[in-house]
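Quick question, first post here. What does this chain look like in 3D?
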Amino acid sequence: MVYELSNPLTKTLITHLRDQKSDAIRFRHTIAELTKQLVYEALKEFSLIQKSIKTWQGEQSFGAIDEKNIVVATVLRAGMPMLGSAIELLPDAAAGFLAIKRDETTHKSVLYYDRLPECRDKTILLVDPMVATGGSICDAIELIKSRNPKKIVALNIIGSPEGLERVSKRYSDVDIYIAQIDERLNSDMFIIPGLGDAGDRSYNTPE
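> Answer (accepted):
Ran it through. Tokens below.
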């Protein structure tokens, strides 16, 4: 299922991202804030475990997310601000890294780096700002599935209807939480209206 956020604050932050006057620091900060909203939504029905902690009244148990059974995996480099934000919320979760580059001629994705921790029977939060054709996220999901996770949840900032449909049809068991579904892809397979290259804008990389 695809779940699009509808909060007016979410839409305001997306507008900030689209604004070319937003510098790299503000761009990364806005991505991080949107990621927190996505994590809140994705985990709102997550099961809790009882965690024993030392309080001012002594040892007590309270409900908490089992962070050690969560892996936050990102697609380098655009996903780094999202990963950092998610790990701030879930400091005991493990982090995983994939590097997937789109061939600008064929529009196909190529995996060239894989640093995932143990995924078996864990919930994987796959964070990546953009879903354009859906090729990169499909490749990432396919790789993660080979590691036998309990569940995969995708968290994205911007996506095209075409890319999201492709991912949903291929992986109907993967829930997608996204801040904004945009209008379409253009002939160059870029999201319209989109916000430009998220990696370049996050790190001031020359285009």
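The chain has one domain: 2-46+65-202.
The domain at 2-46+65-202 is CATH 3.40.50.2020 (Rossmann fold).
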